[in-house]
Amino acid sequence: MEKELIIIIDFGGKYVQLIARQIRQFNVYCEILPYSTDFERIKAMAPKGFIFTGNVVDMNNPDVIEWTNRIHDLGLPIMSIDNLKASDNLKDFLYNTCHCSGSWRMSSYVELSIRRLKEKIGDQKVLCALSGGVDSSVAAVMISKAVGKQLTCIFVDHGLLRKNEADEVEEIFSNQFDLNLIRVNAQDRFYNKLAGVTDPESKRKIIGEEFIRVFEDEAKKIGRVDYLVQGTIYPDIIESGVGSGLVKSHHNVGGLPDYVDFKEIIEPLRDLFKDEVRQAGLVLGIPEKLVYRQPFPGPGLGVRIIGDITPDKVKILQEADYIYREEIAKAGLDKQISQYFAVLTNLKSVGVKNNERTYDYTVALRAVKTSDFMTAEYVEIPWEVLGKISTRIVNEVDHVNRICYDITGKPPATIEWE
Length: 418
Ligand code: XMP
What we know:
By secondary structure, the chain is of the alpha/beta class.
């Protein structure tokens, strides 16, 4: 049992995880429980205080009144939070009213998660779809620390990864971590399914579904597994429409394989925000290079190529994006920017090269700063750096003759273009 526990009582609503995150930011451990949780269980957890939040449950219902009265009778501090601007009061409540010392660290969260995963999984088999992104990597390593080689990871190269990425992922996970890694080269399957498709949501759905089919084909070879791991993090859940309107159908939420024989999904990161996932990754001993790798969407370059996707366009974008990333790193800006990437627009325009007319693509560059990826600001990259990137891309990448820089925040734009 953790010392200095704060229990958040969830009366329904969408802010409960944001409050949990704020509490963790004050280095205090918290757990979220639904309002009807068994009273004796709550008492046995010996919390230092309670936060009541949410507005879905009818507080005038006699059962709810009786239940909350029993909590009040414990004589412990209780704070009710209805909106998100509670930070100052919250800090005061945690430190001065509940007398928490603020000694909790992410390492405790990771330790507890590993312990719980170990208990849950026992000697059973686990399967994980590894994308090489931060989320699935942290989820996989956390599970491998709990159950070692009982975990098998399948890495699908859908042909929409960044330049050299597939080889890098294979290298890191085969050599540095003790897990079974299977790499599937499925580029052609994806390109065939995507041929001629231009609608962003259709592309996302096709990539997500094909991913599942490829994954299933490989999983069938392994046979029955008990658990399937997903690297879902909290913002994925919010943005996929739980608690708010659908923005985009996220690749790693909701779509589950039909034919993989497993009994349960495990989502070890589903309560964490992106910055917390990175902290957990460092605690787990994942190299900084990978932990601070910028996020990369499940559908990959598929949502960064506007219009239909062809292998040639993928190649153009990979090259342009590689130059962009290389120059940002050279300028020492990579650590200051949360996410930066090139987009291949479907806009062609007239240019001139070696005294000849060209009619080629426009590449857009995007760079944003954000802590939670739910809102974001564009980054003011110095002109000279942008100029150098632009010159290199138009000189070194065929079929690109114009570069634009995206200066829109989120909202109203989203981070990805599709
Ligand atoms: P948006 O474009 O929604 O992106 O502002 C927010 C963050 O989510 C990433 N993203 C995804 N991540 N599967 C993912 O795992 C997806 O389908 C997906 N779509 C967007 C995006 O790169 C940004 O970091």
